[in-house]
Every structure is written in structure tokens, then in C-alpha cells.
Amino acid sequence: MKVFSEEGKTMKKITLEVNGKKVSKEVADHTVLSVFLREVLNLTGTHVGCDTSQCGACVVHADGKSIKSCTALAADLDGSKVTTIEGLVSNGKMHPMQEAFKKLHGLQCGFCTPGMVMSAIDLLKHKKNPSDKEIRDWLEGNICRCTGYQNIVAAVKEAATKM
Ligand code: FES
Ligand code: FES
After folding, report:
1. Per residue in 64-120, pLDDT tens?
2. Is 60 near ligand 1, meaning CB less than 6 Å away?
3. Is the Cβ atom of 54 under 6 angstroms away from ligand 1?
4. How far, in Å, CA of 19 to CA of 62, rounded?
5. Could you give the dihedral angle defined by the CA atoms of residues 4, 6, 11 and 13, in that order, rounded to the nearest 10 degrees?
6. How far is it, in rounded angstroms, from Cα 143 to Cα 39?
7. Smallest-distance ligand from the CA of 47
8. Ligand nearest to the CA of 107
9. In terms of CB atoms within 10 Å, which of 24, 64, 72, 157 comes out highest?
């Protein structure tokens, strides 16, 4: 149901499953998913670097596919299942991709890491044992300004042996 808020913006009640939990909230039509996750749900593991669909820091999964949450409207995802970096931990254990990034130092400052991890997990759904080139091609929408790509590629290959 749509209603008009005090500011005159069109609001919509949406229901999503986020990291396995159902959430229902009113959002403005223009609210992007990254803002919804960070500011409404306080899931700040999803980072915002560019806000213009270039850096990939904001990548999450929507219905199992990696998307840039800075350019997806929360209202359009009504009814979807969203997974963020916070949702990867299971029974207190990190996801194999997170373990591999940790083990092989696939990060420096860590700002790009949530998006890298979420994108890389999606890659392994498509390709079980990707080559270096396939990893680099897949992650071209994820920018690391610490230039840690060598170790990121190594971490994705390591995770591929565990997943
Ligand atoms: S913040 Fe979404 S791509 Fe950079
Ligand atoms: S580890 Fe710093 S931006 Fe990638």
C-alpha cells in the first residue's frame, strides 16, 4: 500500500527477508537498498564508496545474486531475500570465503572487502574453479584502492577448494 509522507514523498511498506529474518518497513520510493540496510536496519557491514555503481563496496545478494545495493531501490526488492556480509556467519563460524580472505591477507584497509566477498561467492556459484583471469574479470566491478588484487585472487582460489 502506498501512502504520502509528511515531506510529500511517496512511501511504500515493504517486506524483505534480510539475513534470514523477516523485516517490514515503510520506505520512500527513492530509498536505495544500501541506505535501507545501513540506516534503517543498522547493517553497516555493507559499505558505500562511490554511490554511483562503480566501486562495488556495496555488493549484497538479492535472491542469491550479487547486486550493487547503492543503485537498487529497496521498494523494488519487496518480497526478496537479501543477504549482507553480516549474514554469512553461521553458528559463529565465518564463511569459507571470509576465512580465505583472512588466511591469505586478501585485504588491507578492508573497505572493499564486504563487496569483494559477496561478489566472489556469487562467482563460485557460476564457476566452481575459476582461473585467475575469470576471477579478475568477475571482480572488475569491485575496486580495491589498496591494490590488494593479487591476494584477493589467491583468496578466491583458496575458497574454491573449500566450497
Ligand atoms: S557504493 Fe555501490 S558501487 Fe560504489
Ligand atoms: S583493502 Fe582497502 S580498499 Fe580494498
Report:
1. 999 999 999 999 999 999 999 999 999 999 999 999 999 999 999 999 999 999 999
2. no
3. yes
4. 10
5. -100
6. 23
7. 1
8. 2
9. 72
